[in-house]
Amino acid sequence: MPYTVALDAFHGPLDLLLYLVKRSEVDVLDIPIATIADQFRDYVLVLQTIDLEVAGDFLVMAFTLMEIKSRAMLHAEAADPADSDKPDPRAELVKQLIEYRRFKEAAAALEERAGQQGARVPRHEPPDATPAAGPVVKPVELWDLVSAFARLVRETQAAGGTVAVDDTPQHVYEAQVRARVAAAGRVRFRDVFPPPHHKARLIGIFLAVLELIRHHGVALDQPDPAGDIWLVAVAGGVEFSSQPPAGGGSVPVVAPPEDDP
Q1: Strand, coil or helix: what is 152?
Q2: Any bridge partners for residue 165, and if so which?
Q3: Which ranges of the chain would DSSP assign to H, the alpha helix?
Q4: Residue 98: which of 11, 15, 37, 28 has the closest Cα?
Q5: What is the pLDDT of residues 141-184, one digit of tens each?
Q6: pTM surpassing 0.85?
Q7: Is the per-residue pLDDT at 131 higher than 60?
C-alpha cells in the first residue's frame, strides 16, 4: 500500500488549469488548448507517481482537454465560412474556468480580510512588544513544487531506476525535514533529498514535505520566479514527533517502474 496524502491546497483540476493559464501569461478567454493540454498531462503523470487520491479527477480533466484539443484542430482545419457560427470547443471549459477564478479570488479576498480583522488590536491595550514571528516569504504555488519535484526525479533517475521498497515511516521523514529546516532557517527544496535517490525514497520525502506544509510546519519561498524553491522555518509551527502516530505504523512506498514525465 503506497503513501497517500490529502493536501487541501490541491483544490482540483480547475485549480491546476488556472495555474497553467496564469503561468503561460495568456487570457482565460484565449486558452492555447494544445499547449495547456500537454502541460496538464505532464502534471497528471506526476500526480499519479506520488499517488495522490485526487489523481482520478485530474485524469478526467486530462481526457476532456485532449478531446477539446482534437475538436479544435478539426475546427481549424475545416476553415469553412459556413461553420463560423459553430461554438468554440473551448467555450464551456472557459466558462467553468472563469467561474472558478471568480470563486477563488473571492475566497482569497475573504481570507485576507479575516487576517486583517484578526490582526487588529483594541485601542485600550498596549502595543505588543514581542518580536516578529519570522521572515516574510513570498507565497509559492504548490503546483510549482510539483514541477520542481518532477525535475528532481527526472535528473536523479536519468540513468534508469529500479523498483524499490522504502519502509521508512513517513513521520520519520517529516521529523528529519522539519529538524533540518529549523536548524538552518531555510533550506533549498532539492537539498532535503539526500542520497540514495531511489524513487520510492524521493516520493516518501516529498510526501513528508507536503504534510509539513499542510500542517504549517514549514513555509515555501521563491525569491526568483524562475529560481529555486526554499523551505522556510515557521515560528511556532506544529511539532512532529519521531514516534509513529497513534494507531498507525510504517507504510511502505513502492516506486512505480514507469518513466517519469
Answers
A1: helix
A2: 254
A3: 13-23, 33-50, 55-78, 91-119, 142-156, 170-184, 199-214
A4: 28
A5: 888 988 899 888 888 877 665 667 778 888 899 999 999 999 99
A6: no
A7: no
- Strand-pairing partners, residue 230, are 188, 221
Chain-centroid distance of CA 192 in Å reads: 17
Q: How many helices (H) and strands (E) does the chain have?
A: 7, 5
pLDDT digit string, tens, across residues 47-96: 877 765 657 788 888 888 888 888 877 766 665 555 556 677 788 888 88
Residue 259: predicted pLDDT = 45
- Cell numbers 519502509 label which residue? 167
pLDDT, position 5: 44
Residues 6+ apart with CB under 8 A from 167: 250, 252
The one-letter amino acid at 13: P
Domains annotated for the chain, with CATH where assigned, are: 1-119 (no CATH), 132-261 (1.10.10.580)
Packing angle between helix 55-78 and helix 13-23, nearest 10 degrees?
50
How many Å apart are CA 188 and CA 154, to the nearest integer?
18
In this predicted structure, what is the pLDDT of residue 192?
94
Instruction: Give 194's contacts (C-beta < 8 A, 6+ positions apart).
Output: none
Give Cα 242 to chain centroid, integer Å. 25
The length of the chain in residues reads 261
Q: Which amino acid is at 15?
A: D
How many alpha carbons lie under 13 Å from residue 228 in its C-beta half-sphere?
11
